[in-house]
Every structure is written in C-alpha cells, then in structure tokens.
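Q: I'm writing up a methods section and want to include an example of the input and output format. Could you take the sequence below and give the corresponding predicted structure tokens, formatted cleanly so I can copy it straight into the document?
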Amino acid sequence: MIVRGLRRAALLTMLPGALILTMPGAYAATLSPLTTASGLTPFARCTSSAAPDAMLYPDAEVEPWVAVNPNDSKNIVGVWQQDRWSDGGSRGLVAGYSTNGGKTWRETAQPFSACAAGGPSRYDRASDPWVSFGPDGTAYSVSISFQGVGFDNAVLATTSTDGGATWTAPKTLIEDLGSPKFFNDKESVTADPVHAGTAYAVWDRLESPNGNPRAVAHAFAFTGPTLFSKTTDGGATWSAPTVIVPTANRQQTIGNQIVVDPRTGTLFNFFDLILNTGPNGADQLHGLNVAFTKSVDGGATWTAPRIVSSLNSVGVRDPNTGADVRTGDIIPEPAIDPATGRLYVVWQDSRFNGGRYDEVALSASDDGGASWSAPARVSAPHGVPAFTPSVRVANGAVGVTYYDFRSLSAGNTTTLPTDYWFTSSAPGGAAFANETHVYGPFDMTTAPNAEGFFTGDYQGLAALGSSFASLSIRANDASTANRTDAVFTVITP
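A: Here is the clean output for your methods example:
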C-alpha cells in the first residue's frame, strides 16, 4: 500500500463517451425515517492485545457495507467494524440484520476474531467488512483477520442462510503466518447474481516492505498482486487463491471489487492500480489509476488491466485546521446496470478545482469497458471536499452518496460539521440533478482517529427495487462513550 500522505496531480485522462453532467436542481428524493442499525458492542468484555500507543474506541462503528436479499426485499443485512483501534482494525465485525425493510435491526457478532463466539483464537482484530447476497438468499461475508501484536493475518469467509441471524464457522481463503513479509488487505466478496452457490472474493496481498502487522492504511509496499478465490458450493469450500493482477515494476492494487453482468456472466474487477511507486513516492510515473480487469470464464482467466482514468486525489483535511480526515480517497467504487450492462465507477478526484481538494468523479461505459466517458463531477460544487462516494443502479437510475463539509463556517476551528448527501440520475446517467440531504451536520472530530478522523474507507449502498438502501456512519457529537453509529435509510429518487 502507499503512504496516505503522498499525493500528486496526475495528467488528466479524457476518454471517449457521453459526458455526464452535474446539474443542481430542485428535485429531491424521499427518505424513510433514519434508523440506527448498530447497538451496544457485543465485545465489551473482550480483552485483546494493544500495540504500543494504540487507542481503542469502544462502541464505535466504522466502515459499513449493506446487501438486500433478492428473495425478500425486507431482509437487509449490513456489516461493520465494531470497536475500532487507532492503529488498524477493530475488535471484530458485526452483522446487523432487518426483516422489515430497515425499520428495526438486530445484530450478531461474526466469527472473524477471538472476541466473537466461534471466532479464531489466533486473530484478535478484524477489518474490511463485506457482505453480498446470492440468488438463493445465501449471504456471503468476508474479513481481513490479523493480530494486534504479531505478523499473522488471513482472509476469512462465512455464510448465512437465515437472513444474517447466524453465520457459519469461518473458512480460510489465505493465511500468512509468522512473517512480516506479507499482508492480505482490502478484500471484498460478490455473489453471482444468477448462479446460486457461487461467489467471488478478491483482495490485494502486500509484499514487503508494508504496513504489517497492524494494517496501517496504505503504507508503502514494493508490490501487491490481486488474488482471487471462488466458491461454487455455497461457501463450504473455496478455490486456492490465484493471482489475477500480477506484480511488475513495483505495481500494486488496492480496493478490488467485482461486479457481474448477469446477462453474460462477465466478471469486472475494479481497483486502484498503483504504478511504479518508489520510496516516498520519489519515482512515481503514473501514480494512482482507476482500473479494471474482466473475465468471461468465471474467473479462470482475466484480461490485462485497463485504465479508466487517472485518480487525482489529494486526500482530505479539515479546511480550517488542516487536520487529517481518513476517507475513501484511493478506493474506486463500481456499479453495473443489470438490465443493460452499463458500467459506472466513482472516485475522489481534485481535477475539477485545480488540485486543491477532492470531489466526486464518475465515469461510465456502454461497451463492456472498451471506452469510458470523460470523468465528470457528480457532487455539488461548494468549494469544499466531497468524499467517500458509493454508487449503485436501481431500475436504471444511478444513485451516488457522499460526505462533504459545506456546513463548515470559515472561522470554526473547534468542530468539523459534516453532511451526508445523495444525488441521482435518470437511467443512463446523463445528468445528476437530484441532490438530497440524508443527514447532518455532525461533528467529524468525534469519530475515531485512525490516521485521521475515520468513518470508513467505504460506506454501504444497495439497490432496493426502484429505491436505494443506504447504510452509513454518523458521528455522535461529543459522545466519547459512543462516538459513531451505523444509520440506515431507504432513498427513493
């Protein structure tokens, strides 16, 4: 991974395709009542090892993901990190599940760490929660599990067949023991939308030197190939990991995520392709890039990486104090329209303001990734950072969520007011005209500090019929006993 503070203004990549415009308008989406999905931590009695100077944030939830059961739209499952550590990971991962469309929630600890019943005794921390439903209603979930003090780390997977209430004993997709050379990072899982029992997992495996053992976010590594594993028996077994994006010239990836075209079965794996990264960023040639590979044979073979665009993030800071805010600054987020195969990807980019601050960029492809529209801003322009976008397609409509700092006044250096927003486009993504305030402002400085104030490298968004299911993290102003919560709403454009 790369050091979070290293950023540069890359050359802009203007690719062919339809221009996607941001057009502020008066049309607002409707929101269901905002509900709190997370409750008290189930890990309150857990004692786990702390590295020197590490700080634990009990009852703090960060980095959620969400999925909707295709067989029962009222069954929604979210996952998140529970009790975040300042130096990486959390005490464990928790699944919240609803059977009434998100009106009320229950939660259960997933078996990914020693703090959870049935979890591996070797690993006292877990990170990077993810969940995806298959067409038969099986939910697949994965974790990066590792030691707070030590070198051991693994990618683990579990499944639920009862809507998220219970989870199977974890399966090990990969495990590296006793060596600081390797760290498996930023995994995701995607259930095949057509073939029951099939799901795909991807992650990057960082090779020395790196941020092991405590998953320091985006620490420098020489190389980091993308690994792939799949199950065809509902998660009972997983294939041996294979490299699908190899290392070359100190190449690495991060933020791998697969979307599937249900019409053709084609797999598209999107990621940040980091090219020719040298010590302290000294000899970057191409830096950060939104990229993808694809497979037409179920993951057996993959194309070479194809770059969608340069990724020109400058990171996010408090505009008034300069304090770091840790965001999804180098994590692209993809989506696919299952009816048409149209691809979308969003990311943070500073190209629209001369490299001064990040905003949300979007590009789309109508031809399976052969060509892409020129990156266009979809967050509303307010002269402040907009960050950690998510994107999904619901009955053709394209929805994007993100945070921004537009409520911050010029003289405020004691709090960091932050709002959460939704914007949408009609089918085809031609113009984003509907901006809706989801909630806020809340004080970002209340969130856990993990290389910056932190709500997650990503937030949850899923299609729910013609609406969107949103699961995100909101800080609870000045509440040091319960700094953050996972909150849910249904957004209807």
